[in-house]
Amino acid sequence: IENRVSSLGMHRSANMILSHLFAIQSINNDSIPSQKEIAKKFKVSEAAVASALDRLEKDGYIARIPVKEDRRKNKISLTQSGIKIVQETKDIFNEIDEKTFSGLDDSQKEQLMSLLEIVSNNLSSETLSCCELVKEKDK
Questions:
Q1: CA distance linking residue 14 with residue 21, whole number of Å
Q2: Exposed / middle / buried, residue 73 (Cβ in 10 Å: 0-12, 13-18, 19+)
């Protein structure tokens, strides 16, 4: 997946940001997120998001729109080029999904997703438990 997306000149984190913006703007164009909100969503630093957004803006995929009430803040919006690249990456993901799940009927796909969700929740619980142990040890 990484190779296919990077063949478009897109890094995975940049694609995640663009896809997130696309989803939000598709639902409600008035709900354009700020850099801070994007950082919070992806659990990364605001500096990391600013760097990714600088590159996306330079490449013409996003535009920063100053917030009228607070000139220090910007809302982030996709450009037409950004929308186009998101569509191209969606096509890549759809093609990979088709190959990945070929030979499985709908019932099997649902069962697989249910099992993977259980595994994911187990891993999240385990990660949380490990973090709590580290915090206790540091006290």
A1: 11
A2: middle
pLDDT tens, position by position, 19-61: 888 888 777 666 677 778 888 888 888 898 889 899 999 999 9
Instruction: Determine the length of the chain.
Output: 139
Q: What are 137's two structure tokens?
A: 């040890």
How far apart (Å, rounded) are the C-alpha atoms in residues 12 and 111?
Answer: 28
The predicted-structure confidence for 87-103, as pLDDT tens digits, reads as follows 998 898 899 999 999 99
Is the Cβ–Cβ distance between 18 and 8 less than 8 Å? no
Give the span between the Cα atoms of 11 and 5, in whole angstroms: 7
Is this prediction's pTM over 0.70? no
Query: For position 103, what pLDDT does the model report?
Result: 94
H or E element, residue 63: strand 62-67
Residue whose entry in the numeric block shows the structure tokens 């996709």: 78
